[in-house]
């Protein structure tokens, strides 16, 4: 995950945005409605996807968006990353499918939300293939995240497509 902050995002680790990656256990493994999926190639971590029972925060996101996706009933996908050498092989799609299965098995979420930085190569095209955009927050400033917000369809516990 840290590699992605530096390589793909270009701004590195920022505690106000990335504190979860230094407390994986407390953020993703201990809370019963959270999870962290990790893809390995041998001993190397080549992909991650996480689910948290939190919607987008305001600030930095608009207040109306935070109200639309409230904490508790929103499953937010986080840290969907695949190492460059392992991209375009279906790994991210499979990890998102597994994350959605986890959400469905929890049974009490009403929405699956995520946001992505459109500067990451392939991110926007990937998410548009799976989800519906709900807000385009790109402001044209190359120094700030160029964020696109999405909602994924809610799967049922027996839905094999997600």
Automatic annotation (TrEMBL):
Start and end residues of each stretch annotated as Disordered: 137-162
Superkingdom, natural source: Bacteria
TM stretches of this protein: none
InterPro entries: Acyl_CoA_acyltransferase, GNAT_dom, NAT_camello-type
UniProtKB keywords: Transferase
Basic and acidic residues composition bias: residue spans: 137-146
Molecular function as annotated in GO: N-acetyltransferase activity
Domain N-acetyltransferase: 1-155
CDD domains with a match to the protein in the record: NAT_SF
Protein name: GNAT family N-acetyltransferase
Protein's organism: Nonomuraea turkmeniaca
